[in-house]
Specification:
The structure holds two protein chains of two kinds.
Chain A lengths: L3 E4 L2 E5 L4 E7 L6 E6 L6 E6 L5 E4 L2 E5 L5 E6 L8 E8 L6 E3 L3 E6 L1
Parallel strand pairs in A: 2-11
Antiparallel strand pairs in A: 1-3, 3-8, 4-5, 4-9, 6-7, 7-8, 9-10, 9-11
Chain B lengths: L4 E3 L2 E4 L5 E6 L6 E7 L6 E7 L2 E5 L6 E5 L5 E5 L8 E8 L11 E2 L3 E5 L1
Parallel strand pairs in B: 2-11
Antiparallel strand pairs in B: 1-3, 3-8, 4-5, 4-9, 5-6, 7-8, 9-10, 9-11
Classes of the chains: A mainly beta, B mainly beta.
Chain lengths: 111, 116
């Protein structure tokens, strides 16, 4: 199956700093999604991207759909303690009968 | 409105046993998907059901099976449990299947299965 690799694997940052993470695939994706998962909960959708080159914001979060369609990026500006969690990229297969999650980036924000 | 609910919350089984996990989707959602999340990894897709029919299947052995009922709730069954089946099992509901734009998935809190 398709592999979605995320980097970095983990991040420890000071409150107020900006965060950047990315996700790469060995295959083309037509949709990129970014989720956040907190302990004891299921993933929650943050941003959805549907077109190559698309840049979409949701508050302090901005995500981009790479023009090669094999990567995506998520930026968080002015991080706050509640940003702590694991961030996953994800997307459906081109046939629409599979769904893939990335390996995850764990974010810790130090007050 | 209630979100996606899953039962039980936690479960302990021994190798070789069988387990049934249950999921109730958000009212009005006709699609349910199941995922296995091993500690420290991203969720792995197991099944998607829509209108009681299987619409997608991940790379899992035949020991894993599922079904969807007329009220759109779903069960995931795992036979002949192995130690490696220990994981958080997540259920997600959506209006439609992955091929459409209305497939935003809403996840339940999961069932934590421990196999001893």
């Amino acid at each position: 199956g398709q592999q979605l690799n995320q980097s970095p694997q983990s991040m420890f940052i000071q409150e107020g700093e900006d965060v950047s993470m990315n996700c790469t695939s060995s295959s083309i994706f037509n949709t990129w999604l970014w989720y956040k998962q907190e302990p004891g909960e299921g993933p929650v959708l943050l941003i959805a991207l549907y077109k190559a080159g698309e840049l979409t914001s949701n508050g302090r979060l901005t995500a981009q759909f790479g023009i090669t369609r094999k990567d995506s990026f998520l930026n968080i500006s002015a991080s706050i303690p509640s940003d702590v969690g694991i961030y996953f990229c994800a997307g459906p297969s081109n046939t629409g009968n599979q769904f893939y999650f990335g390996t995850g980036t764990s974010l810790t924000v130090i007050p | 409105d209630a979100g996606v609910t899953q039962s039980p919350t936690h479960l302990i089984k021994t190798r070789g046993q069988h387990v049934t996990l249950r999921c109730s989707p958000i009212s009005g959602h006709k699609s349910v998907s199941w995922y296995q999340q091993v500690l420290g990894q991203g969720p792995q897709f197991i099944f998607q059901y829509y209108e009681k029919e299987e619409r997608g299947r991940g790379n899992f052995p035949d020991r894993f099976s599922a079904r969807q009922f007329p009220n759109y709730s779903s069960e995931l069954n795992v036979n002949a449990l192995l130690l490696g089946d220990s994981a958080l099992y997540l259920c997600a509901s959506s209006l439609k299947v992955f091929r459409t734009r209305d497939y935003e998935q809403f996840f339940g809190p999961g069932t934590r299965l421990t196999v001893l």
